[in-house]
Amino acid sequence: MKNIILLNGSPRTDGSTSKKLLHLLQERFSSDCNVAMIDAALSLTGNHSSQDYASMKKADAIIIAFPLYVYCLPGVLTEFLSGYSDYLKSEELSGKPDVYALINCGFPESRICEDAALVINRFCLEIHAAYRFSILIGSGGMLQPMQKMPFISSIWKHIYQAFDHIVSDISNHDAKTDIHIDSKMPKKLFYFIAQTSFSFTAKASGLTKEQLYRKPYLRT
Amino acid sequence: MKAYIISDHDYQSPVYEKLFSLVHDFFLSRDFQIEQKSIHKEELHFCIGCYGCWVKKPGECVIDDTMAQINKTFNSSDVVVYLSPIVFGQYSPNIKNAIDRWLPNVLPLFIPKQDGTTGHPQRYADTPKKIIIGYGDTVSPESAQLFLSIVHHRADIDAFIYSDHDDSLTASLEKIKLERIVNHS
Questions:
Q1: Cβ A201–B126 below 8 Å, yes or no?
Q2: Which residue of A33, A93, A114, B78 has the fewest C-beta atoms within 10 A of its own C-beta?
Q3: Does residue A66 contact residue B100 with C-beta atoms inside 8 Å?
Q4: What are the chain A neighbours of B123 within 8 Å (beta carbons)?
């Protein structure tokens, strides 16, 4: 039986796209896999990272999902993985787990996730795990609220195919290349939808459009 | 002129001490007023991805901690220098938390960048010159290259790796125009 850890590296506790992706991936594993979910933010804020690190140490495969923050890992995931690396200095890995990453970015271009995939690769080198591949997804912020929109539903189709590559690779080691998933939505339309969405959310908070441009720290 | 030096309290080492002295003395010798912030793990929460700094309290982080003061000093400085330990080829956790929480300083709008990807425009018409210096006891060429690549996604930031060669870093800093940047976006 394979032990599989799904690690949510999103700092969001509600509405996390990364967590949603992991739940959908979880459904694709057969019953002879032992699959557990760890939430990096809850692990750190709940002070149970040592127990979670012990679970990760037993894993045959670890799948790390996270949103791209300023072109690399979110701070919370950086802290969690750094802590795991420290933990393994006294609790060395007995095997060599396979590691995969699911990286989604708010911008349309999946290629800006490439450096984050390299960071996961370097993390693997440091803990002596086996980096396998990453799934790099553009337009991540639209995956949930607009999943039925034509440009976005086609992304989901590719995501499910990529999930099958992970499931297969864990058993067979038959894939090893990063997978890019981009929407074919015209960028102008993407910008319009994204900006309109923020304007609506701000309006719901009682803000005017002008207030979105506030400059509280304007230098005098 | 004011320089703001931000560093990671949890990764202090002889290499860091040398780097900090070098950067501090560099700006002091150029008559900069220097303010320093060494970030402790306990005083800075990670960004929670709530977008409150865009849609609830525009321009300010909604988390009540040290970041408000950091963003205030950041925006009133001419030059901001981050001294970041290199962890897995990227920033250390404390520095990454500070950088993630830059978000209030940009607008919730989307613009094409020169490299063909998408970015956010700056909230302010002018912003401090930003310099990020990565360091570590031993930094592999691959980690150094990745660190620089990550920083260089932002065209307005200068980035260097400090590997105990004082002359090299000083020469690099001397080439930078040490003044605020006027944003055109």
A1: no
A2: A93
A3: no
A4: 213, 215
- Measure Cα distances from B87 to A119, A137, A214, B139 in Å: 9, 24, 35, 9
The two three-digit tokens of residue A169, written as one number: 């690779």
What is the tens place of the pLDDT at every residue in B91-146? 999 999 999 999 999 999 999 999 999 999 999 999 999 999 999 999 999 999 99
Inspect the interface and report whether the beta carbons of B59 and A41 lie closer than 8 Å.
no
Exposure string (b/e) for A155-183, b if CB count within 10 Å is 16 or more? beebbeebbebbbebbeeeebeebbbbbb
B152 touches chain A (CB under 8 A): no
Block residue for tokens 């800006």 = A112
Q: Which of B83, B113, B105 is nearest to B12 (CA)?
A: B83
Please name the residue ranges forming H helices in chain A: 17-26, 40-45, 49-57, 75-90, 114-127, 150-172, 187-204
Q: Torsion over CA of A123, A127, A133 and A134, rounded to 10 degrees? A: -40
Residue A220: closest CA among chain B residues belongs to which residue? B76
Q: How close B54 comes to chain A (CA, Å)?
A: 7
A79 CA to chain B: closest CA distance, Å? 5
For the stretch A47-101, pLDDT in tens is 999 999 999 999 999 999 999 999 999 999 999 999 999 999 998 788 899 999 9
Residues of B in contact with A118 (CB under 8 A): 89, 146, 149
Locate B130 and state its tokens: 């930003």
d(CA B162, CA B133): 7
Closest CA to A140 of B118, B91, B114: B118
Tokens found for residue A205:
């908070």
**Side-by-side strand order, sheet with A33-39:** A33-39, A2-8, A61-67, A98-104, A130-137, A179-181
Alpha-carbon span B63 to B46, nearest angstrom: 9
| Chain B, window 1-40: residues with a beta carbon less than 8 angstroms from a chain A beta carbon | none
Note whether A207 contacts B71, CB cutoff 8 Å: no
The ipTM estimated for the assembled molecules is 0.96
Q: Among A8, A20, A71, which would you mutate to test the B interface (most chain B Cβ atoms within 10 Å of its Cβ)?
A: A71
The verdict on pTM exceeding 0.80 is: yes
The residue of chain B with its CA nearest to that of A108 is B118
Chain B residue with the nearest C-alpha to that of A201: B55
